[in-house]
Amino acid sequence: MRSDHYFITKPLFDLLLFGQTLSPITFYQYINYQLPNLVEQVSNNLLYWSILGTQYFNGDVATQLTLFFDDTFLWHYYVPTKHQEIMQSLYNGHRV
Predict the structure, then answer these.
(1) Residue 62 contacts by C-beta under 8 Å, 6 or more apart in sequence?
(2) What's the DSSP call for residue 8?
(3) What pTM does this model have?
(4) Closest to 63 measured CA to CA, from 82, 85, 48, 79
(5) Is the dihedral of CA 29, 32, 36, 38 positive or negative?
(6) Rounded distance, CA 64 to CA 25, Å?
(7) d(C-alpha 2, C-alpha 21), whole Å
(8) pLDDT digit string, tens, across residues 3-25
């Protein structure tokens, strides 16, 4: 069974500002003051994904969740290297 990797548990969703770019100040606030809670909720989310058999868009089992504090890295380095995989996933009707 294939599951969508964009499902986030409610406790993790409530902890972070998903859909928004984190400023460096907000990012470091999480690192300095909420890291234990963040680690616990990300671990719980990965366990949830593991139980569901959640896969990345390329079919690999989901094993990590990445948070970026600098959207320059995401848009200028990570996304371009994954361009073909992202496009293929979109062509196959999957969300990215």
Answers:
(1) 5, 46, 49, 50, 54, 55, 56
(2) -
(3) 0.53
(4) 48
(5) positive
(6) 24
(7) 29
(8) 344 577 888 878 876 666 667 78
Long-range contacts of the stretch 67-71 (C-beta < 8 A, 24+): 67/16, 67/22, 67/27, 68/22, 69/22, 69/23, 69/24, 69/26, 69/27, 69/28, 70/24, 71/21
Tell me the C-alpha to C-alpha distance, in Å, between residue 40 and each of 1, 34, 46, 47, 91.
26, 10, 10, 11, 35
Q: Cα separation of 57 and 95, whole Å?
A: 8
The C-alpha R_g of the chain, in whole angstroms, comes to 14
Domain coordinates of the chain in residue numbers? 10-91
Assigned token pair, 12 = 């993790």
